[in-house]
Amino acid sequence: MVTYGLIDIDNFTAYNQINGFEKGNDILIEFLKLGQKTLNPKTWGKFGSDEYLFVLNGSFNEHNHSIFELLKRSKEVLNITISIGVSEQVVNVEVKEIINLLRVNLLTAKGHGKNRICVT
What we know:
120 residues, 4 helices
């Protein structure tokens, strides 16, 4: 079992417009560090303009504490909220299918008020 996640920084475009792109870039860098430290993922990186993709060995239940901790610490440390789409998959699934599932889950999380996690 592998757990994939797609994270979006909520309202990031507005953040950039209000605070400037330099401060926005600083947030992206600090969030990348926070995610690496909190999740300790097998794979972790920027995916798109303000999205991040992570891969964790094992099920969501094995990692839910660290994923929720990232949600909490993003607000406490960086004063931002994030939405996360998560999908558990067996290893032999097409990458395109995984990305599509993650995007649907991410949009569902954002559609339910942001600062949330949606898992399938």
